[in-house]
Amino acid sequence: MHRLHPLLARQLARLDVDAHAAPSLDQWSSVLERVTRAYQEAEQDRYLLERSQDLSSAEMAELYRAVEDEKAQLESRVEERTRRLRESETHLAEAQRIATLGSWSYVPQTQRQSWSEECYRLLGFDSTDGGSAGPDPSMPGVRGSQPSCSASPMMMPSGPRRKQSR
């Protein structure tokens, strides 16, 4: 004869049923009652587990939708602010053109400089050559502490005088 599962052997022992002998009608009825109860409890546990999974899935779907909505709102804000920044840059460029005033910056630690289009135009440089042409920050009238270009005199490296402010 084969060996019984330890839980079944324990249940049979609680019911005073000999695993190797035929049970009486009362014993058999008690065994069936216990097995039925075990199945009902297992079914209830399975139902609770499935219900928990369904609730968790619904909560995760709701959270995902909320994250997606927040992401869309953030992207919209970034797009709007980027649009406003571009408009502001366009307005600044137009104001510099009208005032014949440009701007530039120079960072000595990295030796990086950037110029506005109007600054290039006022000083007679080509802004389309990638920024390789431009004034040397050590030139007279080119000062890192006051980045602006305007229509006042300045000595250019090529000799002719252009207009520049300090």
Give a brief rundown of this model.
The chain is mainly α. The protein contains three helices and six strands. The chain is rod-shaped, with a radius of gyration of 42 Å.
Structural overview:
The structure is a single chain. The protein is mainly alpha-helical. It has a domain at 100-163. The chain has helices spanning 6-14, 25-99, 117-123; strands at residues 101-102, 104-107, 112-115, 149-150, 153-155, 161-163. The strands form three sheets. A two-stranded antiparallel sheet has the order 1-4. The longest helix is centred in the middle third of the chain and has 75 residues, at 25-99. Mean pLDDT is 83; it is low at 160-166.
| Unreliable sequence segments | 160-166
| Number of E-type strands | 6
Strand composition percent? 5-15%
How is the largest sheet built, in terms of strand order?
A: 1-4
Question: Alpha-carbon distance between the termini?
Answer: 106 Å
Helix percent band: 40-55%
Helix/strand structural class: mainly alpha
Quote the average pLDDT. Answer: 83
Radius of gyration: 42 Å
